[in-house]
Each structure stands twice: as C-alpha cells, then as structure tokens.
Design brief:
Largest sheet of chain A: 10 strands, mixed
Helix content of chain A: 25-40%
Number of strands of chain A: 12
Number of strands of chain B: 0
Helix content of chain B: 55-70%
Structural class of chain B: mainly alpha
Structural class of chain A: alpha/beta
Strand content of chain B: under 5%
Number of helices of chain B: 4
Shape of chain A: globular
Strand order of the largest sheet of chain A: 4-3-5-7-1-8-12-11-9-10
Number of helices of chain A: 11
Strand content of chain A: 15-25%
Radius of gyration of chain A: 19 Å
Distance between the termini of chain B: 15 Å
Chains: A alpha/beta (354), B mainly alpha (85), C alpha/beta (400)
Oligomer: heterotrimer
Largest interface: A-C, 66 and 66 residues
Radius of gyration of chain B: 12 Å
C-alpha cells in the first residue's frame, strides 16, 4: 500500500486564506449568525465568458482548484473527487423560485444546469480537459470525508497518482431563511471568539471551498500524509471515546502519540457536548484545536479543518486563535480530526507529518 | 428596426449575463455564435426563452435557433416578421 | 484482472413493477410504464410523458409502517422500499453481523417536498419537518435506518444520470479493499416539478413515447424509480453459504470533458469508460454478450453512445438495447434499475427488446435488438452517462 500525501492546498473561506504564503496572519472576527466567504479576485482566474454563469460556490471551487494545482506543480490530475452537502444552492433556489413565481413559464436552463450537485466536478474537468474519474459525494457532514476516503483508497492501491479533491458549500438566501425557522442557525449574533461559550441553539452558518491535491508521490510542496479516514453514520455518545481509541489503535497509535486533536465544535448547545464527551476524559491532556469560529458551519466545513491540520503539520505552528486548551505540543507529527453535524454523520481523519 | 436591434442587444447582454460587454461592442452583423461573441448551445436555449417571453415567438426545435441567431441583423428581421407581442 | 464482487440480493420499484418479479414480467411481456403524469400538477402535463410509479406516497408510507409524523420525501420512500427488498432477497436479518455499509445516490433528494412547500415552510409549522429532508443525504440516512445499518459507512453519490452506477462502483471498491464486508448500493429518484421543468428548458423531453436509437427520436421521458443491490465479500458468501446472483466484474468512470450537458460527438468519455471497464474485467470486447445501453432517446446521447459503441466493439457490436422505452429515464436511479435488468438478463439468458423503434439512424448501421431474444449470456455491460460529462460503465458477469 502506497503512502498518500497532501501535496497542495487552497482554502477560500470567511478568513483571508487563499494566499498560501499566509497562515491566519490576520484573523477576521465576526459578530453575526451567517458569515460569507472572503472573495479572491475571480477575474484573475476565470474568464468572463465562463464566470458569467457561475454562482459563488463554483467560482470559489475553480479558484481553489487552480491554486492547489499550481502549488502542486500540475497541469492536470488523474481524478477529480468533490464533496458538497447542498450542491449548487444559489442556482437551485433561483430555478425553484422561477418555477413557482412564474408558474413554470419562461424558465431558462442555466440555473438548472448549474444546480446539479456534480457541476463543480464537471466544470473543473472541462477547465482542465481532465477525462479521468470524476465523483461527487453529497452526504451532509461526511461529504468531504467520502471524497477523501475514495481518493485515499485509489492512491493507496496505486490506481491513480494525483487526485484533486475538494469540499464546497455556498450560502443562499432562501435556505438560510428556512434553516433559521427550524433553529439550525443561531437566533442572535455572536462574537466568533465567544462561540464555544455559547448557550444557544444553532450554529453560525458559513461557506467555503477547500481543495487539495493528493498524491502517492511525495514532493517538496507536501504538507502531510493521510493515514486513515473513517466515516460513521451513527455513533452513540457513550461509545465515542472508545471509537476514537480503536481508530488510533487500528493505526498502531495510542492517545499519548497524538499531538493534536482538532474538533468541529460549532457553538450549538444541543450538540457541542459531544465534543466535550470525547475530549474530557482519556483525551483530557491532548492538545486541542477548533476552527468553526473562523469558517462557520456548513456540511463541508470539516475540509477547512483538514486545511488547518495540513498547515499546522507543515509550518509546525499552532495559531493562537484555534487553540482550545493551553497545552500546545512542542512538535506536531500526528493529528486526529473529529467532526459530526447535529449528532450524525461522524468522521475521524488521521493525518501525519511526513 | 434600429430600436429593436438595440433592444435585442440589451436583452442578450442581460439574459446571458455578459458583464464585460457593452451595447456598442456588438455590431449588427457580428457573428453571435462560433467566433464573434462566442455564445454556445446553452446560450441558444436562453435566447429561445427570451424570444418567447419578449416577442411571443415559440421555437420548438433548438436547431432552428442556430440559423435565426446568426447575428443581431438576422434576428431582428426574423422577429419583425414573426412577433406576436 | 481482478475478481468480481458477488451480488447476493436485489430490489427494485419502477413504473413497470413494484418488485423484481413484476419488473421482469413487464420486460418480457413488453409492457411499458409510460403515461401522462398524474401526481404532479404541471402546465406541461399534455406535452410530456413519464414513467410514473402508481403507488401514492400514502400507500408507500403504509407499506413501510411509517408514523404520521414522518418526514420522508417520495425519494426516501421509494429508496427504502427497494433497499428492504434487496436485504430480504439477500437473506439478511441482522445488518450489523458484518461490516455493512450503504452507498445510495439521488439527484432529486427531498426537492419534491421543498417545491410543494416553498411558501408553506415560512408560515406553516406542520410542513417544516421536511426542511431537514431536502438534502441529498437524507434519503440515504432513512434507508440506513430502515435497514438497521448503524455505526457504519453510509454515504451518497450525486453525479446526475450516472449516480447509481457510480454507487455500485464505489461499493465494489470498498469490498475489494476490505473496508466493508458487505454493502448495499443503488439509487432513488422521484419525479419532481424541478426536474420536469429543468429538462424542459433543455428542450430534450419528448411529447410522446421515447424511441431510443430511432432516427426520428424526439427526446426522453423522465421516470421515477429506486433499486438496490447487495454486494458481499467472498468470505461472507462462503460463511453464509449465499447464492450469488451475478458478479460485478468490471467498471470504470471517465469524463467526456466536452460540455456541461451534451456529450462529445464521438462519445470520448463513453469510449473510455467502456474500454476501461473491459480492461478491469480482463475481457475482450467480443466477450460481452449484451449491452444495456444508456439510450435516453435524446438526439445527442444515442448518436454519441452509438458511435462510442462502434469505437469500442468495431465489427463485433454485441446485441444492445435501451430499456428506457419501458421505464423512462430515472435519472440517478437509472444505473441501479438497469443493473437489476442486466442481472435478470443474465439469470434468464434473455435480451430485453429496445421498444418503439421504427427507423434506422442515418449515422450508422447498427440496430438495437428489437425483440426479446433468448441466448446464453455470460457478460452484460450496462452504460450510464450523466451531465457534467460523467460516463460510467459496469460489467455484470456470471463468472467471478
């Protein structure tokens, strides 16, 4: 079985993260319930003849994909695998609204085409002229991990050498409105620095695109190794800690070997206790970090977590803003990420320094 | 006829979201598809809807569109003859 | 060449039958499931024909014993019914006896409920339970729950019309790599105003019965369906002494990289997918006994797919047919229902006819199989090509 490397990254998020020479040097603090991603200059990357049809999600993805490919020094890849929780939401809403308001008259094809879940994967393939394997996973908070698992298996078994993977989701008005109604979004604004202490229901919603080139060939740009990925649909809270320990043991590791545990806390009082359950007993002294106060909550927010882990492993720096407890490590070799959304669709990802 | 041509250019720019194109940039006999404005088959479908909505012209076969949409000139002539709105 | 992955169960619900046997009967009796639409109000009612399942949502809910408070979309209802059939057919009583996963697929998801409740969501609390069910993964989660799959690998693929074929591929990969001992794979899609109008804007819907590979073809009929297969590792097949229905012998996914919705003129992506699937299966082209084509009856697909078939098979084009004249194009579920039909073909040594054909296409001289044909079959190829240039081919075989 071959090793799997993250050879390049690019994150478009609510932080100014798309410049890879930067690592959260200037952190943006929000005081809101919904936080949009910071836009790079799309015109630098996408010709107007193409971008005129693209909603934010597609534009973010194309830019993130191009920057990641560039950093990996590649013109093309063997496969493109994306994860998205809600797909082309803005176009989907646009088309649906038009159907209902115009009573099915004078509808135009562009938003329909752009709303399909695999439009991002398809458009990146078009851009690159990539005729390889092209999958899109759409399953809530394991959408990105499914893409990661698929790519990892293919690379381990040497079925491909370079695979572009990405997680993307975009904010859209109607969807935000109805998620407020069912209290999935916080009713009151909250300062990002106070997110974990929040005593209210719901999360702060965000959006973003995080793309990576994975490879079974190491190179100077390499950030980290992907050691293992596990997706679990349901997980009773009282077995969570044991699951994490078993996951480590399956990789010949014990808790003491872990340098960092990155958690997907999103400030939702109904679900954040799950993270406390995991981290306050056997993992009590493990250094911990969190990230959703920086990027917001969305189905593929965990891909931002992977970006964070990769940067930490490469730079060997843990930014203050993400530290959860005051016991940082002296060096970072092994990082475990755990995430779930509303008590379902859990994932463990293990990354290692090369 | 000139008013119609101007109107058409405006509609096309709006419908197809051609942000960087101004009315002055489109000559009456510029090729809309292929070279020239480089529109594609998805744009053709959009224009078909635009024709129905604004001029009451219903095209049932997308292939008909390619001949009619050759240029603003050709389109304007066709619309003058066939419009029901 | 790799060993095939064993298929030990299957389930299906479509406009030509509510279970495997009924679907088979319809196929050999040439009974189409295409009608005018009845359950969705649309101004296009008289301009389209569809493959609609006759059971109402209420009837489906009753069959599943769901409480009134449930928030199942029609996609989830259809999916759950087909998946439970697959489990039963594989003789599985305890999902968690082995590492069992679920890979489903859909394009509509819960959109049928969202379009019905677009305004109601904002004002009527009783409809708001469906908000959570909109996303593509929701129907999959409900199917997992129905099957009793817990603490396991469950996810959803959405690549338009190739989705379920891709679910089968990913499932096979997970078995071969040892990640899972068994996996339920397939897809579900219900009819919706969203997709009806979407395809209408692309001007590829026919106003009459769809005619795959016919020179005068006018476009596709949309359909709704769900189908699932159970794949099991050799170890489980042996331990449980399972009857194997067929094997997933080879597969491939390639991208046309030509246009967002149309296929390249000579079917580049399709050619790659078919050739790569053959290579994985270790089969020569002429060892394929029957192709269940994607054959949607659109101008673009049938031309592109026909040409691709010629590129791959040259002089030796096997018998081929599209079963979409029976069921319509069931979008994400297509790859799964056609997988079931491919397995039925193998089990019964019969090639299903390509209905409604009258006129040979001008561009080539290959003609689909027009009548039911009894013939010993060992290897069946199934094609599913989706938007975004997504081309998938799966080869089903009697041999491992």
């Amino acid at each position: 079985m071959k090793n799997v490397y993250i050879n390049s990254v690019c994150s478009i998020s609510a932080q100014k993260t798309y410049d890879n020479s930067d690592f959260l040097d200037e952190v943006i603090t929000y005081n809101d319930t919904v936080i949009p991603a910071v836009n790079p200059n799309y015109k630098d990357f996408i010709p107007p003849s193409a971008s005129r049809r693209m909603a934010k999600g597609i534009k973010m993805s194309i830019v993130a994909a191009k920057i990641a490919l560039n950093e990996a020094d590649l013109e093309n890849v063997d496969a493109i695998i994306t994860g998205t929780g809600m797909g082309g939401l803005r176009d989907s809403e646009k088309f649906l609204k038009a159907i209902i308001e115009n009573e099915e008259l004078y509808l135009t094809p562009t938003p329909f085409i752009q709303s399909t879940h695999n439009t991002v994967g398809g458009q990146i393939a078009l851009e690159l002229g990539c005729k390889g394997y092209n999958f899109t996973y759409v399953h809530s908070s394991v959408s990105f991990e499914s893409a990661l698992l698929d790519a990892t298996l293919q690379l381990q078994l040497d079925e491909a050498n370079n695979i572009l993977i990405g997680g993307v989701d975009e904010l859209a008005d109607y969807t935000v409105k109805i998620h407020r109604i069912v209290k999935h979004i916080k009713a009151e604004e909250i300062n990002s620095n106070k997110l974990l202490a929040s005593k209210t229901k719901g999360a702060v919603f965000g959006e973003g695109a995080n793309f990576f080139v994975l490879s079974n060939k190491k190179q100077t740009s390499s950030y980290a190794k992907v050691l293992d990925v596990k997706i679990i649909n349901t997980l009773p809270e009282d077995t969570l800690e044991q699951s994490a320990i078993s996951f480590l043991e399956a990789n010949n590791l014990q808790i003491k070997d872990l340098d960092l545990l990155i958690l997907g806390n999103n400030g939702d009082i109904d679900y954040d206790h799950i993270y406390d359950t995991l981290s306050s007993n056997a993992f009590n002294t493990t250094p911990k970090a969190y990230y959703k106060h920086l990027c917001g909550e969305f189905n593929t927010a965990s891909s931002f977590g992977i970006w964070l882990a990769a940067k930490i492993l490469k730079t060997q720096q843990l930014p203050n803003e993400v530290q959860l407890n005051t016991a940082p490590s002296s060096s970072y070799k092994t990082v475990l990420l755990y995430n779930q959304y509303r008590g379902e669709n859990h994932s463990f990802v293990l990354l290692g320094k090369d | 006829m000139n008013a119609l041509k101007l109107e058409l250019k405006q509609h096309i720019i709006e419908q197809l979201n051609l942000e960087d194109v101004a009315i002055e940039d489109i000559a009456d006999d510029d090729k809309l598809f292929g070279d020239g404005l480089a529109l594609d088959s998805i744009d053709a479908l959009e224009i078909i809807v635009m024709l129905d909505k604004n001029y009451g012209i219903k095209l049932t076969d997308p292939k008909e569109g390619r001949a009619i949409f050759e240029s603003i000139e050709v389109m304007a002539n066709y619309i003058s003859e066939h419009r029901t709105k | 060449m790799s060993r095939g992955v064993a298929i030990t169960g299957m389930g299906i619900i479509s406009s030509i039958g509510n279970n495997v046997d009924d679907n088979y009967q319809s196929l050999i009796e040439e009974k189409k499931g295409i009608t005018r639409i009845s359950k969705i109000e649309t101004i296009h009612q008289n301009d389209i024909m569809v493959g609609e399942i006759s059971l109402t949502n209420k009837a489906l809910e009753l069959q599943l014993n769901l409480p009134e408070s449930n928030n199942y979309s029609r996609t989830a209802l259809l999916g759950a019914i087909a998946a439970k059939q697959a489990f039963a057919s594989a003789g599985i009583k305890d999902a968690n006896l082995y590492k069992t996963g679920l890979i489903s697929s859909t394009s509509v998801g819960g959109m049928d409920k969202t379009e019905q409740n677009y305004y109601a969501y904002l004002t009527d609390a009783s409809t708001q339970k469906y908000i959570k069910g909109h996303h593509a993964g929701d129907s999959t989660q409900k199917i997992a729950e129905q099957l009793g799959i817990e603490q396991s690998l469950v996810t959803t693929i959405s690549t338009a019309c190739s989705s379920a074929a891709n679910a089968i591929m990913f499932g096979a990969r997970l078995i071969k790599s040892g990640q899972l001992d068994r996996v339920v794979v397939g897809g579900a899609d219900c009819l919706s105003k969203f997709t009806i109008n979407g395809f209408k804007t692309l001007m590829i819907l026919s106003d009459t019965y769809n005619t795959p590979f016919d020179d005068n073809r006018k476009g596709l009929n949309l359909g709704e369906a769900a189908a699932f297969l159970v794949l099991e590792s050799d170890a489980v097949v042996q331990a449980e002494n399972k009857k194997v229905l067929a094997y997933v012998k080879g597969y491939a996914n390639a991208n046309d990289a030509h246009h967002q919705t149309a296929s390249s003129e000579h079917g580049d992506g399709a050619t790659l997918a078919m050739n790569q699937a053959l290579a994985m299966a270790g089969l020569k082209a002429k060892e394929i006994d029957y192709i269940n084509a994607h054959g949607t009856a659109t101008g673009n697909n049938d031309l592109s797919e026909g040409r691709a078939i010629l590129r791959v098979f040259g002089e030796d084009v096997p018998d081929f047919s599209s079963t979409k004249a029976y069921t319509g194009h069931t979008l994400a579920a297509a790859g799964a229902i056609e997988a079931v039909y491919s397995i039925l073909a193998l089990q019964n040594n019969v090639i299903f006819p390509n209905l409604n054909f009258k006129t040979q296409m001008k561009e080539f001289s290959i003609t689909p199989q027009l009548e039911s044909k009894n013939k010993p079959l060992t290897n069946v190829m199934s094609n599913s090509f989706g938007f975004g240039g997504n081309c998938s081919t799966v080869i089903f075989s009697k041999e491992t």
